[in-house]
Amino acid sequence: MQNLNTKVDQVLAPVLSKVLRLRLHDTVVEQLRNFIVEGVLTPGTRLNERELCETLGISRTPLREALKVLAAEGLIDIVPNRGATVSRMSEAEIGETFELMSGLEAFSGELACERITAVELAQIKALHYAMLACHAQKDLSGYYSKNQEIHDRINEAAGNSALRQIYTSVNRRLQSLRFRSNLHTAKWDKAVEEHEEMLKALEARDGKRLAAILRQHLLEKRDAVLVLLADQETPDN
Fold this sequence. Notes:
Blueprint: H1 2-37, H2 49-56, H3 60-72, E1 76-79, E2 83-86, H4 91-115, H5 118-136, H6 140-157, H7 161-180, H8 185-203, H9 207-233
Antiparallel strand pairs: 1-2
């Protein structure tokens, strides 16, 4: 029996090791992505590998693997012999990418109204009310997490894998900017009102209405971000 247990352990050890490495990899990528989205690591910041390893409690190997993933997503830039920095989008890139995203969101809304199931709609409604609770508590991090999951669920409900792939890729580049667009209280409150209208249109299966709301919602995010960036670049008198 002991020999059998030994053999089982020998078989399972490499498998468990691989699973643990995959979990670590996913965790590190997600944590670094959150640092960028929530502004812990701001655009243009040079990433110090030693400090990040100490913060995350990991070695350099999983960190460097995670950085490669984020570079492929366009969230960081890696320059040979100079290390990695958080990507900084130009004003033109921001405007164009939000413009593209507004179209992707609108198309997602149209298709979702045609194809969403009762279960998917119920899940989105539950997320909506959880998001409202975060807003009432001024929990921006929690609010943003629920907010993005709502947009993501609408895209999934569209049932178009090609759209899904493009949407996910483009959205990753905008997440930190979408987060920052809520830093102004009035704009945050308006975004919540727009989400109320989104839910009503989705429940009514009104694709044109939902598409129009989503398109305008994203373009207003673009405008809020550009104003915020302009204010930050204006020198104090």
